[in-house]
Structure formats: C-alpha cells, structure tokens
Amino acid sequence: MQSYEAALNRFKEAEHKIHSLSYSTSMLFWDASTGAPKSGADARSQAIGVLSGFQYQLLVNEQMNEDLNTLMANLDALEEIDRVLVKDIKKEYDKLTKIPMDDFQKYNMLISKSSMVWEDAKAKADFALFKPYLTEVIDYLLKFAEYRGYEGHPYNLYIGDYEDGMSVDQLNVFFDELRARIVPLLKKIALKNKHIDTDFLKKHYSKELQDKVSRELLGWMGFDLDKGQLKESVHPFTMGVDIDDVRLTTHYYEEDMASALFSTAHEGGHAIYEQNFDRKLQGTALAQGTSNGFHESQSRIFENNFCKSEAFLSYFLPKLKEVFPEQLETVTFDKFNEAINLVEPSLIRIEADELTYSLHIMLRYEIELGLIDGSIKVENLPDVWNQKVKDYLGITPPDDSKGVLQDVHWSEGLFGYFPTYALGSAYAAQLAHYMSKEIDVEGCLKNGNFKPLTKWLNQKVHQYGALKKPNELIEMITGERLNSKYYCDYLESKYTKLYGL
User: Span 306-319, mean pLDDT?
Assistant: First the structure.
C-alpha cells in the first residue's frame, strides 16, 4: 500500500502539467478569437486536439486512478486546498474515464473548428453553414451523456457541469418565480408608453476614444491592466489563464457608444474575479470561479448594480462629456439615466436591458432542453428561435445573424451554460443587498469610488476561487442560500422609480 504522501506528490505534479497544457490551449483559443488568420483554423484545431490528448493522458491513467483512490481514502490527512482539489479532480476523472480518449480528442477538434464556422455563418447570416457542425456537437453531447450516465433529464448533466447541484426541476421553479414578478412589471412599463430619447447614443463615437474610456473604466473598477489585456473580438469574453495573465475583450460600435462601455464593465467584473484569487490557489484548478453562476454574478454586479446605477451614472456623465463634448453637450442626467436603463425588447441578448434579459435566457434554456431531449430538431432551429422571440418579446429577427446565430456558446458545446446568466443576476442582487448593510454603496458610486466595493468582493467572494462551492459561499456571505427575491426586489425598485409607476 503506497503512502498518501507519495500519491499526493505525483498528483500535484500531474495537476501542474495539466494546468500548463490548459494554458497553452487557452492561448490558441485567444489567438483564434482576436485576429489570427482564418486560414490557420485547421492547424490550430489539430494542435488543440494534440494538447487535449496530452491532458487526457495525464489525467486518465492507472497511476492517477490509484493515487486518487489513495488520496480519497486519506482526505482527513490533507490540507484544505489539497482536499478540495483531490475531490474535484476525482469528479472530473470519473467523468472523463467514461468517455473514450478518441471521442474526447475528436470532440475538442470539432468545437475548435465549429466556432470558426459559426463566426463565418454569423457574418453571412446563413444558418445552413453551421447546421452540420451543431448537429455533430449535439450528437457528441448525447453520446457523452450515455457514457457518463444521468438521473432524470440528460440536461441535468450539463447544468451540473457549470452550476454544481443545479437541476432542470430547480431551474423550472427559478424561472417560474422570475416570470411571475418580471412579466407584470414589463406590462406596466409598456402601458406607461413613456418616450425615452436615445438618439444621442447613436451619434458617431470613435473607436479610439471608446477604447480610451473603456480602459479608464476598468481602472476605476479595480482591474490591473499591467497583469491583463483588453482587445476587441466579435463576441466579448474573458479568459483568465493565470492570476497574473487575465485577458478580456469588448466590441466597439461607432454608432452605439453604450454597447462597448457596458460590455467592458461586464467583462471587467469577470476579469477582476480572475485577478483576485488567493495566491495559494495559483497554478491549480481551484484558481477559477466557483461556478458559472457566481462568475456571472461578478460581471452583472459591476455592469448593472454598479455601472448602470443612478449614483454612478451621475459621476460618469461629466467624465464622458469631457471625451465626447459635441455628442453629449445638451444631454441632461435624467435623459442619460433613462437612455442607459431603457426597457425595450431587443433581438440581441448581450445588449438586452435588465428586465428583458431573463426572457432571452429562458428561450435559450427551453431550446437547449428540446435539442437534448429531441423535441426540437436542428434543421428547424431558426423557425423555433424566431417564434419564441416573437412570443416572448413581440419582435422577429430579420436574419439568422441577429437570431439563432448571435451567440458563440453552442458552437463550443456550452449547453447548460445559458441558465447560469440568470442565476448570476440573482446572486448579484443578493450580494449587493448584503454589501449595502456594510458599505454606503450609493455614496461610493456617486464619487466613482469602486475601491470599497471591489475590496468587499475580493474578501467575500474572489479570494476563495473554487475552494468554496456555490451554496457554501453564498450562505457564508449572506446567511442564506440563493434567493431570487432580492433580484426581483431590485428590478421592481429600480424600474418603478425610473418609469414613475
């Protein structure tokens, strides 16, 4: 019987190698998304396939199996970080050992190529280009579900990959609760028929000046650009490859100033989380957000609860007038606040207002369920999508680019990911509620002072990385589990005041 110390040393060595390979794979994805030549897509796909194969071999082998079993039998003897890491890797090992290596490699090559094809299909507004790739992605997900085994709906597997402990049954209840309070609020706003002028946001705002403001905003929020990078991509995203190397992107529209600024605030929230894990977690699989829902809570709390608040906008508008004097010369604060927080059904999820955003998530959730259980066929997807958008939002996409092809997620096999966006908004509201009991949040934001707010999040959320699980973390911070009441209360309070309901 081997000693657990020797097993732990071998385990740590393999885990560090896996982390390094993951870093390399991430760099290839980053390069592909931020300007690498499309002609190199096949070569990158092959490289990613080889790297993912090496990762698989490091994790799935007889020695690792023996070491994990030894460590699982000696968990009480391990320090907290090692104990949590061993349990997490054992869970991942059990998941991967049920998937043949050949399938695992081919799948990683597929999603690398699929995301490039999606980008072309979106540019050409042609779902037919993407259809065979999405069909193959779903076939793999169904095959993997059978390999892994599941309880209830096969979709439970994929929710669990992003939000530990979440299920279809729980999500159905969650969305029902949001729908019961948000839909009536939307109806009241619609009946109010209040005209809000947004023309000034559609004037010409140069990309260069938007980039300057975006970088200044990140600095205020607490993101360290000396240990990170901001670039432009088709779809804004954040990639934390290491505590000292966190990258984010935004997308600039010269006739829509608000889009890039609040995309930057959103991705900045993600990026600040990635920069502030405890150094003890650096180089391990615990140097990441505890769940997708919690990660999304950090982007949402900065984007919506902070940056779109009445308090911060009163500070932000004069700063923006210095950069864009001609475009904003006659804009009053009330006009600016109303325009930024406009409630209006829109086609694009990432540009949706706070109230309609959850409807965008619900329709994607329903479609994902249907694609996984077979009740929705890939060839019918554009029609199904357009009908749901019409039913929920009362509008119809003019083409696939602004409809079913607008999100990158499905091209990368990220089923089960979308619901975590709605969960993130609920976590954000709950955290903001409890933060306000300790800090004058409104007073800080009126002065553009994010430091106390970011420090609170650093101490309460960020430092723990994945060391604390979602349910444990939210209860440790707020004394209760996730409660959608705070999200609904926040929305009702904000929009009742804004629209004079």
Answer: 98
Per-residue tokens: 328? 């904003």
Give the SS3 label for residue 264. Answer: helix
Per-residue confidence (pLDDT) for residue 220, from 0 to 100: 98
Q: Which two tokens stand for residue 113?
A: 């190529």
Buried b / exposed e across 337-350, counting CB within 10 Å, b at 16+? bbbbbbbebbbebb
Mean pLDDT (whole number) for 19-32: 88
Tell me the pLDDT tens digit for each residue of 102-130: 998 899 899 989 999 999 999 999 999 99
Is residue 178 within 8 A of residue 223, CB to CB? The reply is no
- The DSSP string of 198-231 is -GGGGS---HHHHHHHHHHHHHHHT--GGGEEEE
Instruction: Tokens for 7, please give them.
Output: 């097993």
**What's the angle, vertex CA 485, arms to CA 479 and CA 488, rounded to 5?**
140
**Per the residue annotation, which of 119, 136, 163, 267 is the catalytic one?**
267
Both tokens of 35, joined, read: 């300007």
d(Cα 32, Cα 34) in Å, to the nearest integer? 6
* Residue/partner pairs of 279-282 with CB below 8 Å, 24 or more apart: 279/243, 280/81, 281/81, 281/465, 281/466, 281/467, 282/242, 282/243
Backbone angles phi, psi at 250, to 5 degrees: -135, 180
For residue 480, report the phi and psi dihedrals to the nearest 5 degrees.
-150, 165
Longest dimension (CA), the chain: 78
Kindly report the pTM of this predicted structure: 0.86
pLDDT at 351: 78
Place of tokens 């169904």: 142
Is the per-residue pLDDT at 49 higher than 90?
Answer: no
The pLDDT of residue 2:
55
Q: How far is Cα of residue 252 from the mean position of the Cα atoms in its chain? A: 19
Residue 180 has pLDDT above 90, yes or no: no
CB 368 within 8 A of CB 418: yes
The angle formed by the CA atoms of residues 159, 162 and 165, to the nearest 5 degrees, is: 60
Selection from 277, 304, 300, 299 nearest residue 288 by Cα: 277
Residues present in the chain in total? 501
On average, the pLDDT of the chain sits at 93
Q: Say how far apart CA 27 and CA 23 lie, in whole Å.
A: 6
Give the residue-averaged pLDDT of 63-69.
94
Q: Which amino acid, 499?
A: Y
**Is-catalytic flag, 267?**
yes
Greater model confidence, 34 or 294? 294
Assign residue 152 a region (left: φ > 0; alpha: ψ between -120 and 50; beta: otherwise).
left
HSE-up (13 A, CA, CB side) for residue 313: 20
